[in-house]
Task: structure prediction
Amino acid sequence: MHELLEHYNYWIVVILMMMGLYIVIASSNLVKKLIGLSVFQVSVFILYITFGKVTEGSPPIITDNTDVYSNPLPHVLILTAIVVGVATTSVGLALIVRIQEAYGSIDEDEIHDMDDKDDFHIEKQV
Amino acid sequence: MIENLQLLIDVSLLAFLVLIVFASIKMTDLFVVTMLFGIFSFVSALLFLDLDAVDVAFTEAAVGAGFTTVLMLSALRLTQPYENVKHRHSVLALFIVILTGAALFYGIADFPDMGDPNAPVHQHVAPEYIQLTQQKIDIPNVVTAVLASFRGYDTFGETVVIFSAGVAVLLLLGMGQVKCKQEPEENLVLWVVVKPMIALILIFGLYVQFHGDFGAGGGFQAGVIFASGFILYSLVFGEMYARRVVPAAILPRLAALGVLIYGVTGLMSLLSNKPFLDYNALSSDPVSGQHLGILLVEAGVGLAVFSTILLIYYSFSGREVKHHA
Amino acid sequence: MMIIDWISDICLLLGGILTLTGAVGLLRLPDFFTRLHAASVTETLAAMLLIIGIILDTGFTLDSAKLMLLILIMIIANPTITHALCRAAANGGNTPEMETGNPLQSSSQTVSQSSQDKQVQTETEISGKEPK
Amino acid sequence: MIAAAIVALLITLALTLIRAFMGPSIYDRILAVNSFGTKTVLLIVVGGHALGWFSYIDIALMYALVNFVGTLAVMRFFEQYNPRGEQL
Result:
């Protein structure tokens, strides 16, 4: 019981992470894959922020009231990671838009089928 | 009492997170999945707030819930908003996920307890940062001090990453053009309400930018908030007018200028024989030099983030829907 | 001091009850427009009551001024969203379902004459006549 | 009383979430998501006051603004994608 109560944040983090991974693997839609990746990302953020928390601590903003502060280092890492995360997501989405325009589909399986057909035609011509 | 409340909020927020993701696994309408992802970010930001990470909560709410939602919606406009359920590899995925999950659960057992002040993370660098911030930089917000001064190199790298992401999106999608048929319908109530709201958002953005030394906030958050003001204008009044206010052509230059401000601040200290990004060189008094350096660097970050975010939005929303023949 | 505490408690309690009733309405009512109606109660009155309860508890500081600003934003923004959503739903072919036909059609002549209202009414009329 | 308000808000959030999952039309979902956002703002204000979170009011302001922008964006893009009718 002690283990469960002391670690519940970590448990949920792993569950969320696995759900994100499940979306990435199971779904063949590229946009949904990106959403799964973002879920995975947020679960890692929660993991880091949970590490940084100190019981009875206050946010790392210096005041006269307290001496115990939570760890500022994970906060800095995650703050920049969030902004970089959105930048990479936008590049991914731009790629997906171009794939849609080239293939008429954003479904991974359909795209693979089209690619296979193209290869087949090329071999025939050769 | 208070601890019970905190536990209650914490546990219910985590439960909400799991529920939201579970529901979005089952949904096939990607519009709905995107909206659910928006509230997922909201809830996770609330969780960060509960875990003492004020700045992170701020960023996650602005970036995750605000901008990512808008971005995914505008990408969905250009693609198909439905997922084909037939193409799912559920069994394979379940197998991999259960295997990985079991390994991770096994690993978790060795983690230090939550909130343990003697955990290894809290022993090494963090106490020095907190102490040095009080001595050398003298601003209350340790996160801003670490971000802009102690680890200024990293932040410079991240600003460059954001800038290059903007360039990549620009190369992939182009600046886009606006046609009149894309304009939103007339809605007088929205027009009247949104005008003062935009002013409020911009003022709030400035407040966040310059209040970052004392409380939650800073360049990253302020840039996103500022951009979302213009995004709101473009959503309600039409993108044609938004592009007259902030032309798309100046945005890449503004983004580059932001990165340049950051870099030049670093170079200034090289001129007086100090290491790169050592703000003590900026003024005769080291502490006020640090203050000046952090102000300049945050301004550069804010400008770069603002123009990159708005540029990415323009690229997506200005692109015409092309249907594959 | 005692009285202010009492008022603050009453505000918080009322706000809590109103949010709950609004949520139950959002969950239980039969169609979209009635749900919208239920949700709008919590988004204005309950929000106001809860925040006023907190303001009375904090006393008169900078924080309470910011909370006033928050009340202002919520009072303006949420009804606007509700209005825009209602309009979008009516344009999108979603008409209120009633047992006695559609009362919007019969009462539309008597309501105020401003151009904005007229436009909304004609739109609902059009969408009301469309086959289901 | 603050504890009661927090519990009421948490239950409200759960109920709103159920409506967002159930649908049935897309407008119901937008309504539920927007309502969820408003309730989180209230939870930040009430919970922040009770638990003494740092600068919670700034974050509540920000949530309110972001929620407004986000909901408008959802409606705008939905209208663009599905301009006339076509019940979902």
Q: What stands out?
A: The helical segments of chain A are 2-26, 30-52, 72-103, 108-125. Chains A and C do not touch (no CB pair under 8 Å). The mean pLDDT of chain A is 86. The two ends of chain A are 68 Å apart (CA to CA).
